[in-house]
DNA sequence: TGAACATATGAATAGATGTTCATTTGTTAA
DNA sequence: TTAACAAATGAACATCTATTCATATGTTCA
């Protein structure tokens, strides 16, 4: 019965384009570093920028990409916006990738 | 003890750059389609090109990228080169991505 | 209200990347 | 060995994308 290929899990080729778009988001070291630093807990934009030693604007632009792809969540507290990882998939996708990279 | 973040799984920031490079490979629909079509079994370069309706050269270029990242394997049989998926990580990474895309 | 601060946004630029065309390399079989 | 076929490669081009600078939006607090 059920073979172990992915054929059954991909109903439509259209989905592959969406999937490529998702992986594109993971395919940038700045965004990956943002997700990494957020894995310890929520942080403000400035805290992320300082933590990574990058410009506030750069981080803000990339956070937008992450937000649009539902990989991070935002919460406002006063003047600050606190970002955190959105769901478990983020971590799982990264872990799967790591297994491949580290082997 | 062991919290459920990914901090412990990422020993070095350097690795994040390698990881981004890996995800870059998944972040292209042509390469993703190649991996998809290979999930049914090994295929020659021409068979892939015809299956996807793309140029032989395009496929060959992308197969090289997949090869360099150890995502596909090659085997020569006469004039033809038969490509197949390299390991389980390929499928697992794609499946994780799909879970996110399809939700 | 207005000054100070945090974040978002837009335009511009530089660098990366995918595809195509033309050609080369490598293999088979006559 | 040579013709025919399969795959790989290189150069050129067009497109996309990440970063930066400058500025706008939004919030707090005096």
Alpha-beta classification of chain A: alpha+beta
Task: Note the run of SSEs of chain A as H and E.
Answer: HHEHHEEH
Q: How many helices of chain A?
A: 5
- The oligomeric state is homodimer
Task: Tell me the helix content of chain A.
Answer: 55-70%
The largest sheet of chain A is:
3 strands, antiparallel
Q: In angstroms, what is the radius of gyration of chain A? A: 16 Å
Number of strands of chain A: 3
Model description:
Two copies of one chain form a homodimer. Chain A is an alpha+beta fold and 103 residues long. Chain A has one domain: Arc Repressor Mutant, subunit A, CATH 1.10.10.10. In chain A, strands 1-3-2 form a three-stranded antiparallel beta sheet. In chain A, strand 2 and strand 3 form a beta hairpin. In chain A, helix 3 packs across helix 4. The N terminus of chain A is likely disordered. At the A-B interface, helix 1, helix 2 and helix 5 of A face helix 1, helix 2 and helix 5 of B. The structure holds a DNA duplex (30 and 30 nucleotides).
Quick summary:
The structure is a homodimer of 103-residue chains. In chain A, 58% of the residues lie in helices and 14% in strands.
Please give the structural blueprint.
2 copies of one chain form a homodimer.
Chain A: H1 13-26, H2 29-38, E1 43-44, H3 45-52, H4 56-68, E2 72-77, E3 80-85, H5 88-102
Antiparallel strand pairs in A: 1-3, 2-3
Chain A binds a DNA duplex (30 and 30 nucleotides) through helix 4.
What are its keywords?
homodimer, 103 residues, alpha+beta, Arc Repressor Mutant, subunit A, three-stranded antiparallel beta sheet, 58% helix, globular, disordered N terminus, DNA-binding
């Amino acid at each position: 019965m059920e073979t172990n290929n992915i054929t059954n899990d991909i109903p439509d080729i259209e989905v592959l384009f969406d999937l490529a778009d998702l992986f594109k988001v993971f395919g940038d070291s700045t965004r990956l570093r943002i997700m990494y630093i957020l894995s310890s807990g929520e942080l403000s934009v400035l805290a992320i920028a300082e933590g990574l030693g990058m410009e506030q604007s750069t981080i803000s632009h990339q956070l937008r990409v992450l937000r649009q792809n539902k990989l991070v969540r935002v919460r406002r507290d006063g003047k600050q916006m606190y970002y955190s990882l959105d769901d478990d998939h983020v971590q799982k996708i990264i872990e799967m990738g790591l297994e491949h990279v580290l082997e």
